[in-house]
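Backbone-to-sequence.
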């Protein structure tokens, strides 16, 4: 087993077009980088955090 699979953080992501071993080690596979998968995931995570009052939805200065 690889080191990645043995020490997986809870939010480990891989893009859909990553190497098979990277996808296999990931906790979740998101859209391909060629389809803006990372940007879409960040936007979705930020929106969800904002709805729930999480830190990702807050401005660093508190404004």
């Amino acid at each position: 087993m690889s080191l990645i699979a043995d020490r997986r953080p809870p939010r480990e992501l891989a893009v859909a077009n990553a190497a098979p071993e990277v996808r296999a080690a990931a906790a979740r596979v998101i859209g391909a980088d060629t389809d803006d998968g990372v940007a879409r995931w960040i936007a979705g995570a930020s929106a969800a955090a904002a709805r729930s009052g999480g830190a990702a939805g807050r401005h660093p200065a508190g404004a």
